[in-house]
């Protein structure tokens, strides 16, 4: 397989660099970030354009899988594989397979895009609730 440059939406590029969407748009309009325009006139950012910017970002120490959640108050975390991502309008349906069980979450489409959720990725469901109901099966 040859070198294929992945094209990202501006919001995806912003999330990858850890900057805001308006910042990416300013960079595109100022010519600091080169893009490819779709037939509909939408900007797409080649992944190769982000690589030099990502190298200049300071790298923090890598964290173990569960350590990254220490800054989150929710302790009920279920780690699994993404089996489905359906984006429709403002909302997205995300299904995680956790062992032989699955859990479905409805989140904003923006959040799903910013996290770049894709089928096959590892993700965690954080459950925060004042009540947990138990059903005898």
List keywords for this structure.
four-stranded antiparallel sheet, elongated, alpha+beta, 137 residues, 4 helices, three-stranded antiparallel sheet
What would you say this structure looks like, in words?
- The chain is an alpha+beta fold.
- The chain is built from 4 helices and 7 strands, in the order βααββαβββαβ.
- The protein has helices at 10-17, 21-30, 47-55, 109-114; strands at residues 7-8, 36-37, 43-46, 76-88, 91-98, 101-108, 122-127.
- The strands form 2 sheets. Strands 6-5-4-7 form a 4-stranded antiparallel beta sheet. Strands 1-3-2 form a 3-stranded antiparallel beta sheet.
- Strand 4 and strand 5 (91-98) form a beta hairpin.
- The longest helix has 10 residues, at 21-30.
- It is elongated, with a radius of gyration of 18 Å.
- The relative contact order is 0.15.
- The model has no long low-confidence stretch (mean pLDDT 81).
| Residues in helix, % | 10-25%
Beta-strand proportion: 25-35%
Secondary-structure element string = EHHEEHEEEHE
Low-confidence stretches: none
Mean pLDDT: 81
Please identify the structural class as seen in this structure. Answer: alpha+beta
Quick rundown:
The chain is of the alpha+beta class.
Q: How does the SSE layout of this entry go?
A:
Blueprint (H helix, E strand, L loop, with lengths): L6 E2 L1 H8 L3 H10 L5 E2 L5 E4 H9 L20 E13 L2 E8 L2 E8 H6 L7 E6 L10
Antiparallel strand pairs: 1-3, 2-3, 4-5, 4-7, 5-6
